[in-house]
Amino acid sequence: MIEHTGLYEAIQLAITEAMSNLHTSTPAKVTQVGTDTISAKPLISRFVNGKKIDLPEFIEVPLVTLQGGASYLHFPIAVGDEVLLIISERCFDSWYAGNDYAQPLEFRMHDYSDSFAIVGINSKGKAITIPSITTLIGDVHKEGNHDQTGNNVQTGDYDLTGDMTINGNLTVNGDIGCTGKLTVSSALIGGIEFGTHGHPQSADSAGDSQSNTGNPV
Predict the structure, then answer these.
(1) Are 37 and 63 in contact (CB under 8 A)?
(2) In CATH, what number is assigned to the domain containing residue 39?
(3) pLDDT for 131-151, tens place per residue?
């Protein structure tokens, strides 16, 4: 019985030792932002031989980006942002260098060196309230077409560089300022058609009745 107990403890110790070095994911804080990678320091320390050990800074960590085809959604990242580091099952150095279906350059597994970063986790004190509708806060730079079905309500200025085509009515509650040429095919001003209206003219010296001028030219 004692021998069995010792064997069980040895196996349990081996399993615990293996699991302690099987890395899957961990929260971290951004320490540096590069062109296409970040550096981050894990926020959960390890406890080894009765001592707390802080993990080192992970450098040049690739980012997980929401994308598909030629489209992507990317957000600015700042030092201090919290991220989730996902640790790859195998060494991905060869793949990251552009070699698909290649043998790993090293045989390490679940190693901190092979991490991806997902930006957008928050500890409880920084948690973002879950909204009832899709909410976008911050500046936006967009390239490509935008197709919307539904109403668009905007509070603030609208600056457009380029042409605008409106298939429908335009109602403006306020002033319109124009510093260039305004071309319209038809305009109704105060209930009067601007392009086809005439003005009354006084009777001539012969006493002819009053008549209207011709259309504007």
Answers:
(1) yes
(2) 2.40.50.230
(3) 999 888 888 888 888 888 888
